[in-house]
Amino acid sequence: MKVIISSIFVQEQDKALEFYTQTLGFVKKHDVPVGEYRWITLVSPDDHDGTELLLEPNNNPTAKEYQKKIFAEGIPATMFGVADVFKEYERLIKNGVKFTQKPTEMGEVTLAVFDDTCGNLIQIVQK
């Protein structure tokens, strides 16, 4: 068994798609209408057959409350691995990304946290 899709709640799918592709650099893999929403998945540009990130609409009260509360507590919704946190931090700052935590070394990992503008905090990690 392996993880093939991981989802993240987003407030607006189009806004999230733009941020995750144009700002972060993910690649759209699927964009299929499903009722009033869409099944939108993204992959790393380095691994088109890797784990997909599903941009899941937060269209129900439980999802909205969960997203709101973990954001308020400063808890990242997910974590992305990067080769060099400091380099990625500088690239994203230049792209207008707002960080809530600058690169910080914590034992064997270095991490930073940013606001995805879609209701989530995202952590980037270098092992």
UniProtKB/TrEMBL annotation:
Transmembrane segments: none annotated. Pfam families: Glyoxalase. This is VOC family protein. Signal peptide: none annotated. Residues 1-127 form the VOC domain. PROSITE patterns: VOC. InterPro entries: Glyas_Bleomycin-R_OHBP_Dase (IPR029068), Glyas_Fos-R_dOase_dom (IPR004360), VOC_core (IPR037523). PANTHER family: GLYOXALASE/BLEOMYCIN RESISTANCE PROTEIN/DIOXYGENASE (PTHR36437), GLYOXALASE_BLEOMYCIN RESISTANCE PROTEIN_DIOXYGENASE (PTHR36437:SF2).
